Q: What sequence folds into this?
């Protein structure tokens, strides 16, 4: 089914598209090539209509002028342009790897009172960090003795609002076994609401992984889940993101990527670790001179 | 249970001044040097210092970060210097340079001049550094190699590059290189593949 295109939709020329995609890439690391033309044009046109701009130039000028204003048009545009597909227990084998292999290894190097910090970035609408919380509660008895801090970030503020609200349609839960749905969700008119205890346990925040300045605030992380983000990037922004996450990790910390993403091609900063359940990437415990 | 939340997980450090970052670029600790490189890269106002640091940096990880920093806001001068650095660099550094050069838009003029160098290894690195978004100038120069480069391995890499990005204009050069190395099997295979990819017919 195709959406009808109103004849008064603002025009976006080839040059406009190039200018926009270059700017957007610099801000977010996300690459839009010509093949994404339709996707991008539709969203740009919608943002232009909603902000009362008939001409691309005027819209783009206003966008650049207010670019660094929090919550401004740049944020709206980012929210419109990101692809936020996610669901509970996506690539569950990585959670198994976390519990079976990564946490035991990390604990062997940490004092009994030290908090472990796990960061889901990008978290989109929260399914991934909530899955982590549920998985730990279900499969990691040591949670009774250890403190774990769950951080969850995304560039898209609309998604973060959804994550904080924790109300999900049934399709987001399709991979989740029924007993877990019963235990952690309440049926409501709008869908399934996740337990308040879980909502309170996760710190959500807006973070752009490509923004070196804001990434400086994130340190001492033990495990990063960075799944299904780098596929939207080009080689350079992948490398920048990999390096920023490298800085955020403690020595010996781990990064888990989506199954279609491979860090070896992205950066030689990490060591590839093959565990029974998954391949993950480790920041070396010692830095390696050559 | 012990899922805990600290309201403000980590306090954002204020961005350090440029001078401080330049000092940190010479810190004893490699991690500090790497972070300083990234921060300077995002500022985009310390290319010369980053290039100087790369020249002498002993740690491979930090060197990678210096190169990523340089690629963040690249200009012609950075591209020139990185391309020229390929000449004197050892194998490890050459590989690092190739990876970053490939990511620099507009690198063709700086890289193509290296194809005139007498060192066949350098010519191969230069071919590998050429972008997969070729300029007409780069296409023409690589096709020229197929007519006159004496080194068979250089020609092999050139053929592979053309297989990815070539156009029918380069078909005569592809046929010419096959004729120049009649006994070399891998050249024949590579040419066949390139010709098929480009969509020409023998
Ligand atoms: C496909 S979702 C992945 C969600 C989850 N990690 C998963 O695998 O199911 C991709 C998310 O990346 C976010 N994103 C895109 N660019 C980003 C950036 N530069 N920094 C942080 N998040 C970004 C988008 O907003 C989107 O929510």
A:
């Amino acid at each position: 089914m195709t959406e009808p295109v109103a004849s008064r939709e603002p025009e976006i020329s080839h040059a406009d598209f190039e200018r926009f995609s270059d700017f957007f890439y610099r801000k977010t690391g996300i690459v839009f090539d010509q093949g994404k033309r339709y996707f991008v044009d539709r969203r740009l046109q919608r943002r232009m209509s909603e902000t009362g701009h008939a001409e691309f130039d005027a819209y783009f000028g206003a966008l650049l002028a207010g670019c660094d204003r929090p919550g401004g048009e740049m944020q709206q545009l980012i929210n419109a342009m990101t692809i936020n597909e996610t669901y509970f227990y996506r690539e569950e084998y990585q959670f198994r790897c976390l519990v079976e292999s990564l946490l035991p290894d990390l604990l062997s190097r940490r004092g009994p009172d030290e908090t472990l910090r796990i960061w889901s970035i990008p978290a989109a609408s929260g399914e991934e960090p909530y899955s982590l919380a549920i998985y730990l509660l279900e499969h990691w008895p040591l949670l009774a003795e250890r403190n774990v801090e769950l951080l969850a970030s995304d560039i898209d503020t609309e998604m973060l609002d959804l994550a904080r609200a924790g109300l999900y349609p049934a399709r987001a839960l399709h991979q989740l076994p029924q007993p877990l749905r019963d235990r952690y969700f309440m049926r409501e008119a709008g869908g399934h609401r996740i337990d308040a205890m879980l909502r309170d346990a996760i710190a959500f925040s807006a973070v752009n992984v490509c923004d070196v300045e804001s990434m400086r605030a994130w340190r001492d992380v033990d495990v990063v889940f960075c799944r299904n983000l780098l596929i939207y990037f080009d080689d350079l922004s992948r490398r920048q993101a990999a390096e920023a996450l490298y800085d955020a990790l403690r020595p010996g910390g781990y990064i888990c990527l989506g199954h279609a993403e491979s860090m070896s091609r992205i950066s030689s900063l990490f060591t590839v670790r093959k565990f029974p359940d998954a391949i993950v990437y480790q920041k070396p415990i010692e830095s390696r001179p050559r | 249970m012990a899922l805990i939340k600290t309201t403000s997980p980590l306090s954002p450090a204020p961005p350090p001044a440029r001078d401080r970052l330049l000092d940190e670029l010479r810190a004893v600790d490699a991690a500090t040097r790497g972070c300083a490189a990234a921060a300077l890269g995002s500022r985009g106002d310390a290319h010369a210092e980053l290039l100087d640091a790369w020249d002498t940096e002993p740690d491979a990880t930090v060197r990678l970060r210096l190169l990523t920093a340089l690629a963040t806001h690249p200009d012609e001068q950075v591209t020139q210097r990185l391309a020229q650095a390929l000449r004197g660099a050892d194998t490890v550094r050459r590989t690092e340079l190739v990876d970053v050069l490939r990511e620099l838009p507009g690198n063709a003029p700086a890289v193509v001049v290296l194809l005139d160098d007498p060192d066949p290894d350098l010519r191969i690195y230069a071919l590998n550094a050429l972008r997969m978004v070729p300029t007409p100038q780069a296409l023409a120069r690589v096709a020229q190699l197929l007519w006159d480069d004496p080194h068979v391995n250089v020609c092999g890499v050139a053929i592979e590059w053309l297989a990815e990005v070539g156009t029918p204009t380069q078909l005569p050069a592809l046929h010419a290189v096959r004729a120049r190395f009649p006994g070399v099997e891998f050249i024949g295979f590579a040419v066949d593949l390139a010709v098929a990819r480009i969509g020409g017919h023998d």
Summary: Chain A touches chain B at residues 115, 117, 133, 136-137, 143-151, 198, 200-203, 205, 211-214, 216-220, 234-236, 239-240, 243-244, 246-247, 267-269, 287-290 (CB under 8 Å). Residues A 28-30, 82-86, 90, 122, 124, 128, 154-156, 159, 207-210, 227-229, 232, 258 surround S-adenosylmethionine (CB under 6 Å).
